[in-house]
Specification:
45% of the residues lie in helices and 9% in strands. By secondary structure, the protein is α/β, with parallel strands linked by helices. It has a single domain, classed as TIM Barrel (Alpha-Beta Barrel). The strands form two sheets. Strands 3-4-5-6 form a four-stranded parallel sheet. Strands 2-1-7 form a three-stranded parallel sheet, with helices on one face. Helix 2 runs parallel beside helix 3 and helix 4 packs parallel to helix 6 (157-166). The longest helix has 19 residues, at 236-254. Keywords: Lyase. This is 4-hydroxy-tetrahydrodipicolinate synthase. Belongs to the DapA family. Pfam families: DHDPS.
């Protein structure tokens, strides 16, 4: 089955589910968010705005709409963006997806509706179909988001096959956050030309030779340049070197609560403690946890270069 991929997927890419900063009153901090997006793009990453690690499901519809507008107004190319637009309520998913499409984003990364469990593939097909039909744009490109350990609603291979058959120019890829390598490998084999993104850079050594489109990874927030270097490696030796570097950092961070850990790292390198804020029910890392993680990263010679733009916003 052939699909119609955006040009941004012409070669493997890394996309970061951009962590979201908050003010002391826990409002979204748009200036810090935009500055961080600019830093990520400058480091070679695309922007998977409003992903799991963006605390997207702790953001209102209006906040997600406004944040995308702020990023666009800052002059960041929408072709570098894959906003998360999935929602439990169909009208919310339609509104978010329409907004992203009209803005010219490369695609919309769509969770399934995740409150009701045990729903059928027929129901999920209807959900995605209703969004596609309501948006009604030839420019819409949908990437499915498979993260059953959070949603309880898996994206089956049968559903993918059905969606591609009916919407070959619209449903063009998937982020596989299942952590199940066998599932990722099977999708890469079964759906050639479909943009399959593993959720961890640690899997790229196995996934790239099978045709992976890159990765959409939590830790792309902190090591975008290293992951981009891995994806752009020319020789096998160079690729192996970068694989080892990015995987080691990934393993260190994923051993902690991911979102608070990422924010603690950004706060440290941006010299801006406001980045540690999270919305309930999440809680920030305590100083001992954060200090131990930063010591571990320091031992790996980890750094986040060129963070001056974020420090300037803090000032």
């Amino acid at each position: 089955m052939s699909v119609s991929l955006p040009s941004v997927f012409a070669k493997p890419r890394v996309f970061a589910p951009v962590v979201t900063p908050f003010t002391a009153g826990l409002d979204v901090d748009a200036p810090r968010f935009v500055a961080f997006c600019q830093w990520l793009v400058g480091q070679g990453a695309g922007l998977a705005l409003f992903g799991t690690n963006s605390e997207a499901n702790s953001l209102s519809l209006a906040e997600r709409h406004a944040l995308l507008d702020h990023v666009l107004e800052a002059g960041i190319d929408p072709a570098q963006m894959l906003p998360g637009t999935g929602a439990c309520a169909l009208p919310d998913a339609i509104a978010l997806t329409r907004h992203a499409t009209e803005a010219g984003c490369a695609g919309a990364l769509m969770l399934p509706p995740f409150f009701y469990k045990g729903v059928s593939d027929d129901g999920l097909f209807a959900y995605y179909s209703d969004v596609i039909q309501a948006v009604g744009s030839d420019q819409l490109r949908v990437l499915l988001y498979h993260i059953p350990q959070f949603t309880g609603v898996p994206i089956t291979h049968a559903l993918i096959e059905r969606l591609i058959a009916v919407y070959p120019h619209t449903v063009v890829g998937i982020k596989d956050s299942s952590g199940d390598w066998a599932n990722t490998a099977a999708m890469l084999e079964k759906f050639p030309g479909f943009a399959v993104f593993p959720a961890s850079e640690a899997l790229l050594g196995k996934a790239l030779p099978l045709g992976a489109a890159g990765c959409i990874s939590a830790t792309a927030n902190i090591q975008p340049r290293a992951i981009a270097s891995l994806l752009n490696a020319v020789t096998l030796e160079e690729r192996a070197e970068w694989e080892g570097k990015v995987a080691t950092v990934r393993l260190a961070v994923q051993a902690q609560p991911m979102i608070p850990a990422l924010k603690s790292i950004v706060a440290h390198f941006a010299k801006d403690s406001s980045w540690t804020r999270v919305r309930a029910p999440l809680t920030p890392m305590n100083p001992a946890q954060s200090g131990a993680l930063l010591q571990q990263l320091q031992a790996l010679d980890f750094s986040m270069p060129s963070m001056a733009s974020l420090a300037a916003v803090a000032a």
